[in-house]
Amino acid sequence: MADENEDYSSLPLKTRLAHKIWKVRLNAYTEAEKLFSTLDPDTEAYVFNEYEPFLKKIASDANVAALEAGIGAVLKFVENTPNPTSPRDSILEAILEKCLVSTRAGVKTKSLELSLLLCEIDTPNPVIGKKLTIELYKWIGPALKPIISNLDPVLIKELESEFEKLPSQKPKPLRLLRSEMDIVPDDTDDQMDVDQPTDTVEDAQDISDEIDPWDLADPVQVLSKIPSDFYSNITSQKWKERKESLESLITILNSPKYADGSYDELVNALAGRISDTNILVAVLAANCVEKLSTGLRSGFASYSHIISKPLIDRMKEKKANVVTALNQAIISVFRSTGCQLKGFVDAISHGLSQKNPQIKSSTLKFFSECLKMTTERPSKGQIKEYVSISKPSIDDSDPTVRESGFELLGTLMKLVTEKALLPFIEGIDKAKEQKIKQYFETAVVQLAPQSAPKPKPKPQSTSAPGKKVLNSSSSSKPTLATSNNQKNTSSNTSNSSLPNNNYGAS
User: Fold this and answer.
1) For a FRET experiment, which of 86, 228, 412, 491 has its CA 20 to 30 Å from that of 137?
2) Domains (range + CATH), the chain
């Protein structure tokens, strides 16, 4: 086996690009990327021609770390070569077969960038670029839309029309790659670092289904784009100025991913507008909360306590568009915490303590959704707490509140099992218990059902065969013999169990 610690830098670059040790190839790809960035396409076009035959193999590297570096090199090649359309077909074949189904986010991101670059440079034949984008959409799905959002609006409309015609089921690879086949590699070092081979072609399809647009998007700097008069306008006495300030923010929040930063002032400002006397302003504020929490994801979790109570308080509204905006906002905030319920119990208790039945019913429905989505199974103490704040709702004078309460307890029962919940709702009448069980039967929760603990196996006796083990805790004592025969039997038995001390006696 080749020694990976050996210095291979003296080898020609072309030799290292095809080397059997992946670390050597990775370093060569990095060097090639720098080379392609500095070549003059007018005077050094011949150098690009010399490296073009390597591109497909680089974009199909079996090692994911090397592949990511390799795609970077190919990207620089296409950006700088005087004839970028020449290697297009071979590069795209490698991207479709290897890169788009990779489990490494960097590989997927760079390969998508490379694919779109090939579309962009293909101006003499825009039909090919359009077909390529449609083919990419077949494999990637909606995750591609944010990436093509900067294209010409007319072209986007044409593409979306073509996307709608595509079958809902994504295509499957027709064959496995050589790297996925059961072959013996030449180098043991490569064998330990390559992607794990898939057993079936369907497995590769499952990987492509997991592509998330958020992972592929570049984070947008939201805070730096907010106008200087935003915070004065959002608190203006004129509702139109408040509305316009939020509309300007909605425009800024038009990307799937936002950069981290200090959003305290912005979230507090939005919380204040959730309770705005003007319905339009309140809905816009809720829309902004939804977009911001969706774009920041876990980065928004620390602000959930600021916004959750104002959203619940506003749930007194009955208009469908307002209810929808509030629900979408608070569910998005809940998702940003990793669907962990502990940070929302205070806000839920606050909502259930209100006299308004609309607030109580909406809070219970939100509580039920949290239980369905949560990633943590409640402890006994948490079960007791959840029941104590929600159980009064099943005796409420409002039928909508009662029904929402039954649904909540039924969902909780599904999450923690019937056996775990029944002690906490003991004493309610049979009709109400039956309603809870009806919701229990139909509820669907994210966590897998909790299985009952297996009975512990009985301990096996460690005594020797044929012997009885006396229980030291037993109070029973052996009775005295009442006849000579019994005495002799007892004596013989006792003596036979003693060790023989007549060493050497005849």
Assistant:
1) 86
2) 13-122 (1.25.10.10), 223-442 (1.25.10.10)
